[in-house]
Amino acid sequence: MSVELDYRKYLEQIEEPPAFNIRWLWTVAGPGAILASLTIGSGELVWTPRAAAAFGYVMVWAFLYGVWIKGVIQYLANRWHTITGISTSIATAKVLTKWFNLFLAATILAVMPMWWTTLSSLSAQVPWAWSGRPAPLLYFW
Prior knowledge:
mainly alpha, 0% strand, 72% helix
């Protein structure tokens, strides 16, 4: 399956966007805002309030930066797909080589045992945290 990644022919057909104003932003961001909200996961819903409670306003810059970066990435990925008609996963597969896939597989194989160990330790502590009783020292090394 060969996919042509020449996007230059599509760029010639695109008109310049209108000058920025709030009304233009409101008309453009309607469905896109809904699609972008679908990318919100447990990190934003669980860890952001928890970190805010633990660290206060010291870490607000990191949260705002993360939200901004996520918005930029979503905007660029959607723009790429709209302009070229090629999904970002296909374009990424064309750009990244087998060496990257091997590096990713090696990283996953190295990290997964630590991740499962941490998950099992935390899962063992959850019932004790809900009950309010002191937790026994359950560690799975």
